[in-house]
Amino acid sequence: MDNNKCCVIIGGSHGGVNVAFSLRKEGWEGKIVVVDKDPNLPYQRPPLSKTYLTVKDESGYIPLKGEQAYTNEGIELLLGQEVTKVDKSTQSVELNDGTVISYDFLVLATGASPIIPPIKGIDKAKHLFVMRNIQDVKGIQAALESGVQKVAIVGGGYIGLETAASLRKLGLEVIVFEREQQLLPKVKANVLSEFLLELHQNNGVQIELQSSVSEIKNECQIQTIITSEGKAFECDMIIMGVGVYVNQTISNQLELDYNNGITVNAYCQTSAENIYAVGDCNTHYNAIYDQSIRLESVQNAVDQAKIVAKSITGTSEEYNSLPWFWSDQYDVKLQIAGLTIDADNHIIRKEDEKKWSIWFFKGDQIRSVYAINNAKAYVVGMKLIQQNAKLDKEKLVDLNEKLSPKTLLIQNEINV
After folding, report:
1. Domain extent at residue 366
2. pLDDT recorded at residue 169
3. Are 256 and 263 within 8 A, CB to CB?
4. What angle do CA 272, 276, 279 make, to 5 degrees?
5. Which among 213, 321, 381, 407 has most CB atoms closer than 10 A?
6. Cα–Cα distance between 264 and 284 in angstroms, integer?
7. Are both 80 and 146 inside the same structural domain?
8. Are residues 132 and 147 both part of a single domain?
9. Same-domain pairing of 252 and 359
10. Are residues 87 and 48 in the same domain?
11. Burial of 355 (0-12, 13-18, 19+ CB in 10 A)
12. Rounded distance, CA 156 to CA 354, Å?
């Protein structure tokens, strides 16, 4: 393989780093450069809203790879630097310090950024944070050490709820504002939203549903959140968790096709032949659900990174992974297999109050499983979804029936 070629990877999170190491594994002998504006050695992101908050020193931060690993594989890390300009015609990128790097292949792992809603008075808010990187966590920890006691979290999705759980473990007063009528409003099962509502309330979190933040006031050193209903809540810190937007600056310069994310084909290739995109920033076709989707998921980024490496090195393989996710809140581990985007019904299998699962279907065909403290349901669900299996729902809810793929399949589907 030509060792004079260069692959530039913009973004040093899970997708970008895994592209770099996967390239070496696939036999790429050329130069590999990873550019990331975060000055820290690339690290695990999911723990940001979980364990990182409760750790007061660097030992809690988990690097994706040790520093020596990059040296051993000949991967150049340009940390604390940002790509300010890309030129498709000259196949080059320019960094904020003026450095210009030519590329043969370019990989965009540019991810997404937290949304900061245009709330009145937000520009004067004190101790306002998002949850996207280590700097955010360090800022929150510093604020807590300064005496913060009351924390308002705007957004009742996974990030907001995980952050709430972590802060309660630290003894903080926490209130969560969610503008919809339930937590996790995108989930197609009220029972999970109700379960998490009760979980957080039992752990001392105040939950305000159907409550939009319309204004933030700072008067006489007292910070107050005003809701659209006119209610007022004092707080020392505000954490935003209302969603993200795809970072488009680079893709716009390259004039790449875009549809809720950078459009890629089955090989994670963009509309430009030698440019690829992985992770949160791309929209790709998923054969299991027969539609284009964009996923904010570590698993998606890592799996796509392997596909990109194969494509660049000439051993192309189509991306066809089943999405999965997880969330840790207090003593609850929620594991999710698949997506509910085309589900039209669901049933619940309940072993006990703390161990149960929600099974989502399209007709009788299993599409997704939400497993609460139930690793077996998660593993079995993964296998069945990958088979596009149709299940015997009566057996699924019968606790006397063994939870296994063979047991749950409808008889005429056994040989699927």
Report:
1. 331-413
2. 94
3. yes
4. 140
5. 381
6. 5
7. no
8. yes
9. no
10. yes
11. middle
12. 21
pLDDT at 51: 78
CA 151 vs. chain centroid, Å, equals 23
Inside any domain, residue 320? no
Question: Per-residue pLDDT tens for 49-69?
Answer: 877 887 766 656 789 999 999
* H/E run at residue 395: helix 393-397
Among 219, 242, 265, the domain-final residue is 242
Task: Report, in angstroms and rounded to the nearest whole number, the Rg of the chain calculated over CA atoms.
Answer: 23
Model pLDDT for residues 173-229, shown as the tens digit of each residue? 999 999 999 999 988 889 999 999 999 999 999 999 999 999 999 988 899 999 999
Q: Are residues 274 and 372 in the same domain?
A: no
Tokens (6 digits) for 14:
């899970």
Task: Please give the pLDDT value at position 186.
Answer: 87
Bridge partners (DSSP) listed for residue 263: 283
Q: Which of 144, 187, 184, 130 has its CA nearest to residue 161? A: 184
Which residues on neighbouring strands pair with residue 34, listed in sequence order? 9, 77
Structure tokens that stand for 5 in this block: 């070629």
User: pLDDT below 70 — which residues of the chain?
Assistant: 1-2, 56-60, 411-416
Provide the token pair at 234: 């004092």
pLDDT of residue 415: 46
The beta strands (E) that lie in 30-189 are given as 31-36, 75-79, 83-87, 92-95, 100-102, 105-108, 112-114, 128-129, 150-154, 173-178
Q: Can you tell me the distance from the alpha carbon of 294 to that of 278, in angstroms, rounded to the nearest whole number?
A: 10
